[in-house]
């Protein structure tokens, strides 16, 4: 796929980032698979999975566990920052955890849906409010937390309990508004 430069039209793909430096902000494998499978059912365009070299093995595990890999490309570990920037800028939207790509895509003018586990979106969400959607569980007494590991649950329940339908509905709403 040839990417267009800055200021050009958005292309027919979305980018998904399931990673974060901190475990409490990273989607657990099973939840990542579940979300990507649901997005695949709802969205017919290309989907690019991204991540650093260090995150490549984890993204590979998720990718190979998907129900369907049709039009889903795993670019984890294969996208230097300038190339990643191009993918993020050209995307219809970016679905991501609270991470560097969330801030980069938002700064590049791409609507960014951020799944919050640990972290407080009032302090760490991407700056451009008009181009971001925040999805948080808001059902646990420990939310929002600022820990890098989930002490109460081990695996971050704030992420594993997110409703896939809410995520897919937000994607559909944003994509419909673009037409």
Please give a quick description of this structure:
The chain is an alpha/beta fold and 179 residues long. It has helices spanning 29-42, 56-65, 81-90, 100-107, 121-124, 157-160, 164-178; strands at 13-17, 46-50, 72-74, 93-97, 112-116, 132-136. It has a single domain (13-178), classed as 3-Layer(aba) Sandwich (Rossmann fold).
Question: Mind explaining what this structure looks like?
Answer:
The chain has one domain: Rossmann fold, CATH 3.40.50.2000. Helix content is 36%, strand content 16%. A six-stranded parallel beta sheet has the order 3-2-1-4-5-6, with helices on both faces. It is α/β, with parallel strands linked by helices. Helix 4 links the parallel strand 4 and strand 5.
Question: Key features?
Answer:
Rossmann fold, disordered N terminus, 7 helices, alpha/beta, 6-stranded parallel sheet, single chain, 179 residues
CATH second-level architecture: 3-Layer(aba) Sandwich
According to DSSP, the number of beta strands is 6
Tell me the fraction of residues in β-strands, as a range: 15-25%
Helix content: 25-40%
Question: What overall form do the CA principal axes indicate?
Answer: globular
Secondary structure tally, helices: 7
Taking the sheet with the most strands, its summary is:
6 strands, parallel
In N-to-C order, the SSE pattern is EHEHEHEHEHEHH
The CATH first-level class comes to: Alpha Beta
Mean pLDDT: 89
What's the CATH topology label? Answer: Rossmann fold
Q: How many angstroms does the end-to-end distance come to?
A: 22 Å
CATH homologous superfamily label: Glycogen Phosphorylase B
What structural class results from the helix and strand content? alpha/beta
Radius of gyration: 15 Å
